[in-house]
Amino acid sequence: MAPSIDLNAGTRLLARILTVVATLLVAACSSVNYPPAPVSAATPEYRYLIGPLDTVNIIVWRNPELSLTVPVRPDGFISTPLVEDLPAIGRNPTDLARDLEKALSKYSRDPVVTVVVTGFTGAASEQIRIVGEAARPQAIPYRQNMTLLDVMIQVGGLTDFADGNAAVLVRGKEQGKQYSVRVKDLIKRGDISANVDVRPGDVLIIPQGWF
Question: Which of 41, 73, 94, 128 could form a Cys-Cys staple with 197, CB 3.0–4.6 A?
Answer without folding.
Answer: 41
